[in-house]
Amino acid sequence: MSKPVVCAVQGPALGEGLALVANAQVVVAAHGTSFGMTEIRTGMWPFLGWRAIERAVGGRRAMELALTNKIFKTREALAWGLVHEVAPPFELVERGEELAELLGNASREAVKRGLEFVRKTRGMGR
Question: Which residues face 35 on adjacent strands?
Fold first, then answer.
């Protein structure tokens, strides 16, 4: 992707919904939003979203969430780096639009090159 994704999330972001949040570059969540890797409840492993969630919250946290199918709230999501801001539900869309506007004002070429650099160098030096 050559453009950053801003995610404004409210309500439950479970399973692959959590993966969508984890794939965004900037995330704002409404107070009261819930998150969880719940695939194991149905006898599945979260294969599709695993890498994005692991990058967002770290490997050990992702493993814990996948194995326990724990549902967590915005406070934990913010502390773990999954979301960058928490807003009241009535301000969520406005805050998401403000963040998108900030990103839209950045140099398109610099953003494109930066995202490409991050993608290409991910995992190097470990």
Answer: 13, 72
Both ends of the chain: CA-CA distance in Å? Answer: 24
- C-alpha closest to that of 92 among 28, 11, 13: 28
Strand partners, 13: 35
* Alpha-carbon torsion (54, 78, 75, 31), positive or negative: negative
* pTM assigned to the model: 0.86
Helix or strand or coil: residue 7? Answer: strand
Q: Who contacts 70 (Cβ-Cβ below 8 Å, separation ≥6)?
A: 36, 64
Q: Report how far residue 13's alpha carbon sits from residue 18's, in angstroms, rounded to the nearest whole number.
A: 5
For 62-115, the pLDDT digits (tens) are 999 999 999 999 999 999 999 999 999 999 999 999 999 998 888 888 988 988
Residue 49: Cβ within 10 Å count: 22
